[in-house]
Amino acid sequence: MPLDANTDPADIAARWAARFDAAIAAGDAAAIAACFRDDSHWRDIIGLSWAVDTTSGKDALAGKLAERAATSKARGFRVHPDRLAPRMMERAGIPVVEAFLLFETEAGQGTAQLRIRADEAEGEADGKALAWTLMTALDEIRGHSEAEERERREEPAFLRDFHGPNWLEKRERARAYKDHDPTVLVVGGGHAGITAAARLGALNVDTLVIDKEKRIGDNWRLRYHGLKLHNQIPSNHMPYLPFPGIWQKYIPKDKIANWLESYVDILDINFWTETALEKASYDETHKCWTAEVRLADGNLRLMHPRHIIVATGVSATPNLPQIPTLDRYKGEVIHTHQFSEGSRWKDRPVLILGVGTSAHDIAQDLEGHGAKVTMVQRSASVVVNVEPSAQFYDGVFFEEGPSIEDKDLISLSLPLEVVKSVHKHLTDKVREIDKPILDGLAAKGFKLHFGEDGTGWNLLFRTRGGGYYFNIGGSELIVEGRVGLIQWDDMETFTEAGYKMKDGEEHQADLVILATGYKGFEHAVETMFGETVLERLGQIWGFDAGQELANMWMATPQPGLWFTAGAFSQCRFFSKYLALQIKARELGLV
Hints:
By secondary structure, the protein is of the alpha/beta class. The protein contains 18 helices and 27 strands. Helix 16 (521-529) crosses helix 17 (531-537). The longest helix is centred in the C-terminal third of the chain and has 19 residues, at 568-586. It starts with 8 loop residues before the first helix and ends with a helix.
């Protein structure tokens, strides 16, 4: 129920924070537990520890909170004076008081994000309101904020050395690494690697990004002709340089590529193109890597970084599974990453194996060029109209008022179980909005599902990296019969000229496109670091026992090895905490 008109969310948040701070100061787990609902959640993002994890249930989180607060010397929880003021909001269909809190630890200053259900909030006058969710995150390391680090590296503005190297010459020397190695080597120069390097650079951690492509941004520039982002600008900004507000809502691939190239230049990010990490081994004695880096000229450079960040992505290496009987087919076979545009295939039959987003986009491109396209569905898939439905899942970033930094923390503060509830609520709404196209697809035999427990597409990305399609017209082509659809289970075999169905009907295909997705991090890890490191790491990506994406943006079981990947929004906000963890290790705090 809503709060009484005379009840102030700021007063409710302040009273709860004072009660919680007293319990923390006393180190009293029972008193801490008394501040939380039975079904509460606490997400710690290196706030009271150097860990990223979520704990659910008041007794479990109270004990861990008491322990970590004592170790970190957490104190001074109060309403944050410089962030968005406490307010009433609705999350997962539940009215809540939502507030930012400020706190201190021995390491530095942090921000907490608190939610109290509105139907219980008024009980705070009697000291009885209970927190539903709490998130604690470190903002900065004491004495080493980005502003303080800028002062350390900046010469006095009035100084000029007319006989020594100027700024450009210093940049070229730093980027060349002729007389030293980087502290951090980032493998992969897409938005994930670049944002990590930008954050590390702001903290004065010497970082080099390497990438196999010829030009910065080519990992976007060389993708298929019609590619654009499927979510809008508000969720996709990059650290320090947000996208211009006058840009189109859905950014084309080439504009992204050019932006990444400019971003690297503007933010003084050290970047080597046509460079690859061939293999690396960790030196336990010296706490650094011996990394063999193949340079653009073909020579091998040995480097000894203390940290390596793998930023090759969850969709870097094409997955080329053994497709039964495909070896009988004598025509052209390509993976989706090899597809550019469809003009070559006018009036020719093309078979696409898969029904994910890339498969649909390529089918739409081919059909527009006059090709005769048939898609093969191997398993049920989520379909969601890109507008408005797909945008609902980024709802936090469309809110009026909060800064992008506040929106990031609001998003981060939602623990997995609450995210599932939010997405279930949204997916129920989306299914009603998208019902006409979903019914049309079902009538054509398209097998639909709606995500794990009906939570939609977003969590599929965080677990499988696929299994969905953002509809921008491809579904209508299937419904209208302009793109054919068959089920894998109805195919009997590939033939020299195409394929044969179980009913005996044979079809020609001049091209077979494998929309079979990509291999995960495991492939890159085994290639670069070997099987022993891969076994030590265990799961990478997908949710772990701590309700977080396994081994992402956090210390891994392999010292000195880190991972980053995901959407622009994930890379924007998690790159901050990744950089802080590495900086803390360089300062000897961990």
